[in-house]
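Retry 2 of 3 after timeout on previous attempt. Resubmitting structure tokens to design endpoint.
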């Protein structure tokens, strides 16, 4: 089986590549390296430095004829989507549509789309399940939601099986500490470098899921005969204050963060129900927050 992974040089994508190689899939990566890094990927897979909106993508599908596609390439920043909604739409909506067209033309057997908890907006009830109302509050959330709609229409019009995976807050090795979503990598990086740490609010909660559990979910989705939308999360709530305490204690570094008021527009609480993925994929989040953090911290400490 050959799987084409877009965004395979990125944070999550590089772990999905590892997981697929470990399961003896032939792996082809498409990435433009806008935020990804070639050093993130093993020599055991073929890499095309191609933008998903580029004409050359057609050639990649013609040459490789993948059986499956895991589509992770995206503009993944909420801030950037607010600064430049057109660029966000071009990558996340048009780019996804182009991937779908190539998948349809080349008779791909299944597509897995990376979506986000952001599509739910400010949840009315917790934990949020896949039937909870969708309410995108940023262009990023909206473009992810639009991508989901295209994927579902391709299934109903052209019988292209899919799994849409809505990830909660993913953390782990290789996450960019400069990225806004990477609070864990920001904390670890600042702790290790002895930099001042600022916490805005602190009582707000997030659902942190370890990147290796996310990679396993992508594999399970590819192998499953099911089609549908799935939350991929830890289904546990952790406040930013608690996350900081646990991370600093595991890193063995004591530091008092600077406290500021919660930033405008920040969601107060977030936790995603993951029962559907557990039941239908026989997937589980194997890493506790402590285990995932320990592993992440050790990769940072190795780099010093
Ligand atoms: N990190 C999270 O917490 C999180 C949460 C929810 C959803 N997601 C989704 O998961 C996916 C992966 O996110 P990530 O955190 O690994 O981000 P990332 O920025 O590390 O990875 C994205 C990858 O896509 C590549 N890419 C971007 N635009 C491209 C284009 N036009 N053509 C080809 N390649 C392109 C980048 O170079 C990078 O390698 C994204 O779809 C994102 O929306 C991430």
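Retry 2 succeeded. Sequence:
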């Amino acid at each position: 089986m050959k799987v084409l992974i877009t965004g395979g040089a990125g944070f999550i994508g590089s772990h999905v590549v590892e997981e697929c190689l470990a399961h003896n899939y032939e792996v082809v990566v498409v990435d433009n390296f806008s935020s990804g890094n070639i050093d993130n990927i093993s020599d055991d897979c073929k890499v095309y430095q191609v933008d998903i909106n580029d004409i050359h993508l057609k050639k990649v599908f013609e040459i490789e004829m993948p059986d499956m596609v895991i589509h992770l390439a995206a503009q993944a920043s909420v801030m950037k989507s607010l600064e430049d909604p057109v660029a966000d739409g071009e990558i996340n909506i048009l780019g996804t549509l182009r991937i779908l067209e190539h998948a349809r033309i080349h008779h791909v057997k299944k597509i897995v789309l990376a979506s986000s908890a952001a599509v739910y907006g400010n949840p009315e009830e917790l934990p949020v399940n896949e039937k909870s109302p969708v309410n995108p509050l940023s262009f990023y959330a909206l473009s992810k939601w639009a991508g989901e709609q295209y994927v579902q229409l391709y299934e109903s019009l052209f019988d292209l099986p899919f799994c849409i995976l809505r990830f909660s807050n993913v953390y782990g090795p290789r996450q960019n500490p400069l990225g806004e979503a990477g609070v864990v990598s920001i904390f670890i990086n600042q702790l290790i470098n002895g930099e001042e740490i600022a916490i805005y609010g602190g009582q707000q909660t997030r659902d942190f899921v370890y990147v290796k559990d996310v990679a396993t979910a992508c594999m399970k989705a590819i192998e499953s005969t099911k089609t549908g939308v799935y939350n991929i999360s830890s289904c546990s709530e952790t406040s930013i204050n608690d996350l900081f305490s646990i991370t600093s204690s595991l890193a063995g570094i004591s530091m008092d963060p600077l406290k500021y008021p919660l930033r405008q527009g920040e969601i107060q609480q977030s936790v995603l129900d993951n029962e559907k993925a557990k039941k239908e994929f026989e997937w589980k989040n194997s890493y506790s927050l402590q285990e995932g953090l320990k592993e992440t911290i050790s990769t940072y400490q190795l780099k010093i």
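Attempt log closed. The chain has a mean pLDDT of 95.
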